[in-house]
Amino acid sequence: MHDIHAVILIAIIAAVTMLLRFLPFLIFNGNHEVPRYILYLGDKLPYAIMGMLIMYCLRGVSFGALAGWLPSLLAVAAVVALHVWKRNTLLSIIGGTALYMFLVQVVFA
Amino acid sequence: MKSIVRKSFVKSLPVMAAYVILGMGFGILMHDHGYGPLWSIASSVFIYAGSMQYVTVDLLSTAASPLSAALMTLMVNARHLFYGISMVGKYRKMKRTRPYLIFGLTDETYSLLCDDRDHPADDREDELYCFLVTLFNQSYWVAGSALGAIIGSVLQFDSTGIDFSMTALFVTVFVEQWLTSKEQRAALTGIGVSLLCLLLFGESSFLIPTMLLITLILSIPYRRKASSHA
What we know:
Chain A is mainly α. Chain A has helices spanning 2-28, 36-57, 66-86, 89-107. Chain B has 2 domains: 2-162, no CATH class; 182-230, no CATH class.
């Protein structure tokens, strides 16, 4: 039962994810030309969506206690600073994550 | 051919670290909740959507209903509609590999392939390049998941905070876009609208209103431009 439930959930989550990924191509891909408005949106959206994804990652931040927001703030600042300085994606991600893990496990534990 | 393989591999390198590490985090989490390597691998092969797979661990362990799993997926992954919309033009000519290109269009694959830099000028070469970047990325994710499931059963270590690597990846892409493009206003719109909707709707239901409002606000300059041309 445990396993059947898990198989069903994974299948549903996979199917909905696929539907969301394929839908735009099914709608706009035939012989219809993609409307200029859609192309315009496709041009602008990536920048706004990346901002949204950052806020999505930080949605759990709470301002009750220092430990609820300071580790995220410091680690995000470190990622920005590292990336502006070195422009090395790997370094920015690993440096920021290491700092965050240190902060939540040691400093604000 | 060989140079395209090398080019796409080099392009995918930044994602390798993120996917292996995040995939490991997912595998470890699955193991902690009683789901072994086969479950992690199956999720990463068939679902292949990072943040949603972390949510999946929650759904599995709380015995969520199929309907609530479907709705949650719709919420968390709705942004993929936008990735699709902005890739319709680029993927139109890529007939042979298109189903897989669309299936594998994750946040990170999209962030690598959405700009025009580094794409080969030749159409066939570009298709191979897009296909390989997508395939490399998924193999990192699957390998990381398997590795995490195995590590989880062998090693004991405190992985608290490892999920920040996802935040760090998006911040890095954001900064890179900020420094190399002229779309700072769109970037700020994304941050500002998300923040507003997060305060208004709360963390579990702000994504849909955020996406609607972002689309609306970004459409204003287009309408103005279109009417001034008329």
